[in-house]
Amino acid sequence: MAPSSSCHAAAVLLLAVATLACHFSVLVVATDVECHCHGANGNGCRGLGINYGTVADDLPSASRSVQLLRATGAGAVKIYDANADILRALAGTGMPVSIMVPNSAIPSLASSRAAAEDWVAANLAPHIPATRVAYLLVGNEVLSNRAIAGSTWRSVVPAMANLHRALRAHGIRKVKIGTTLAMDALSASYPPSAGAFRDDIAEDVVRPLLRFLNATGSYYFVDAYPYFAWSGNRNAISLDYALFQGAASSRYVDPGNGLVYTNLLDQMLDAVVAAMGRLGYGDVKLAVSETGWPSGGDAGEAGANVRNAATYNRNLAARMSKNPGTPARPGAKVPVFLFSLYNEDQKPGAGSERHWGLYYPNGSRVYEVDLTGRRSSYPPLPPADDTDSAPAWCVLGSKAAANETAVAAAVAYACQQGSGTCAAIQPGGACHEPDMMDAHASYAFNAYWQQFRGAGGTCFFDGLAVTTTKDPSHGSCKFASSLD
Ligand SMILES: *[C@@H]1O[C@H](CO)[C@@H](O)[C@H](O)[C@H]1NC(C)=O
Ligand SMILES: *[C@@H]1O[C@H](CO)[C@@H](O)[C@H](O)[C@H]1NC(C)=O
Ligand SMILES: *[C@@H]1O[C@H](CO)[C@@H](O)[C@H](O)[C@H]1NC(C)=O
């Protein structure tokens, strides 16, 4: 249909201000439904949305961060709370913003309309309309956390309903309410047509959620990471298929309905579509609240490198700019939020957790990516330096030295795990000298990590530890390596 080509043409003619050009053409053609320039977020000529997470101690100010995220071509932004500094920094930008209610607030918001009104009055109302809030997400992957099953799961939808009323009471009508769920809300996702929600949540939580989303015209927000699906099944899934560049021979045909898949993300999204359909809500819209690929990780975290991260995100942006939908929903507009703006140094877990960003905290880019998906050429990428081929060790990081109390507590923890984990740093042991906290900490962190890595142990220690490829062994003191 004409609007798509005219939109592209306008962008090309007025290349200096492609975004404005496309907005202009949208206004002219009035019906914008098929406009390719509409991008994944249905917000005019805008690129992928981006998650602005702040689990770090070294990030730039909110206003600088807003400049950085706009420089990526991001078309929307999502934050993990209702941080007033960030919402103020976004005022007047026109950027659609998604904000989040913390999981811990859900029970009280569910049980009290007054609490919901207070939450809206304190966190949201002061920023509207200067800041363009688009989505209010009630909780983050609540159904993945079994520790809050009793206290919170069944409160999610009542909290959403109370917030919905509170928004109305404030005359706020444009904000859609949702909640983000991880892929583990499904008990089956392969083949996609077999997608089904877990039995423990399907009737009590998901059915009322879908009823709410359907009735309010909102979205099912899913955090969908082909990286994790691929890294857990590397023998069965090709890397190129996960990176949106599978050959024709790697297409997957769903035996349940004959739909043809060219990439892993589509498979995951259609599993959610099938699961919703199984509960009678096959028309609820889908949004991807998080996706992405890590640019680095620990030894053994295959595929976490700059080359793959850039490839995934560039291909995703280019693909979504054309609103392809999925095989089960061709042409559907799916808002997508990339994870994430920054590498966040305080995120616990494996090394890859601290390598999702497009930017380092100093504002340098980790790699080039244009989230509008319109850039067609980039400088060459570094080779895929898979971290599992080189030996690695876990040592005390440079930031840690300042806090001896914290280091001592972390060493005590590491040494209490397993038996004899820290024998070598005891008096008489090969690594006792030099008898200094820093040296002992590196030994203890490494001994712990090498022993428990396979069982999920991480080189983190509240941000005190880092991995290195430089062997810290000295003299007769040998540090085990990841390849031992
Ligand atoms: C979903 O919402 C639409 C529009 O309001 C309505 O017609 C339909 O019956 C709803 N679906 C279900 C399963 O309730
Ligand atoms: C920013 O930090 C990264 C990672 O530490 C580093 O490689 C890069 O050189 C830094 N850039 C500047 C301009 O300091
Ligand atoms: C040092 O670490 C301890 C324990 O983690 C913490 O309570 C304390 O606030 C830290 N001190 C400084 C100066 O950061």
Can you describe what's shown?
- Residues 1-30 form the signal peptide.
- With 484 residues, this protein is α/β, with parallel strands linked by helices.
- The protein folds into two domains: 49-359, TIM Barrel (Alpha-Beta Barrel), CATH 3.20.20; 393-468, no CATH class.
- It has helices at 2-13, 18-29, 62-71, 84-89, 106-111, 113-124, 149-152, 156-169, 199-216, 226-231, 239-242, 264-278, 306-320, 404-416, 437-452; strands at 49-52, 76-79, 97-101, 133-140, 176-182, 186-188, 196-197, 219-223, 252-253, 260-261, 285-291, 325-326, 329-330, 336-339, 393-396, 465-468.
- The strands form five sheets. Strands 1-2-3-4-5-8-11-14 form an eight-stranded parallel barrel. Strands 6-7 form a two-stranded antiparallel ribbon.
- Strand 9 and strand 10 (260-261) form a beta hairpin.
- Helix 6 (113-124) crosses helix 8.
- It starts with a helix and ends in a 16-residue tail after the last strand.
- The structure holds 2-acetamido-2-deoxy-beta-D-glucopyranose (NAG) (3 copies).
CATH topology of the largest domain: TIM Barrel
Kindly estimate the percentage of residues that lie in beta strands according to DSSP.
Answer: 5-15%
CATH superfamily of the largest domain: Glycosidases
Judged by helices, strands and strand pairing, the structural class is: alpha/beta
pLDDT averaged residue by residue: 89
Tell me the count of domains: 2
Q: Main β-sheet, in a few words? A: 8 strands, parallel, barrel
Count of individual helical segments = 15
- The end-to-end distance, rounded to whole angstroms, is 61 Å
Radius of gyration: 24 Å
Q: What is the general shape?
A: globular
Total beta strand runs: 16
| CATH class annotation of the largest domain | Alpha Beta
Residues in helices, as a percent range: 25-40%
Low-confidence stretches: 1-44
The CATH architecture classification of the largest domain is: Alpha-Beta Barrel
What binds here, in terms of ligands, is: 2-acetamido-2-deoxy-beta-D-glucopyranose
